[in-house]
Amino acid sequence: MLLAHALVGALNSAGAVLVTLTTLIVSVYLVSTFSLARLEDWFAGPIAIWRPVAEHVKDWFEEMRRRRAEKRREKARLRAEERAAARAAARAAREPQVEGIEPAAQRPAQPAPEFDPEINNIPICALEEPVAPEPVSRRAASRPAMEARPASANFHLPTAELLNELQGRASY
Q: What is the pTM of this model?
């Protein structure tokens, strides 16, 4: 019990189970006259039970793969039909549609409306040219002269009053 608690503490419960099973298998192999040749005889029964289940799962996956491929082919066929219909519609829209007019169905030409010549006689006057403004002269903006300050050759350290004392750590 103490060993089990130590294993669960050091590993999680799944790790403790793996270590226990590995220890059990290695101890059986070392203590007995067990050989790997007999392993096939021991597992022949369980393998025979699981073989039909494995075949059934394999067939199921194959059926799903076949259905998926069939759906893809159907979708591709539908997309191809849609593209062909869209191309045909675009081609029909590009071609000019000419409607045949029967000669007997033509209407007689209507006479042109008459306009009063006074209305169309609009006097045209020349526009007066605007007077050009005088050019603006630009003056350079005068800047105030900077005062020349003598550069200090000595550096003075600031006083210790500027330093802050470290705050103590807050206790939780």
A: 0.34
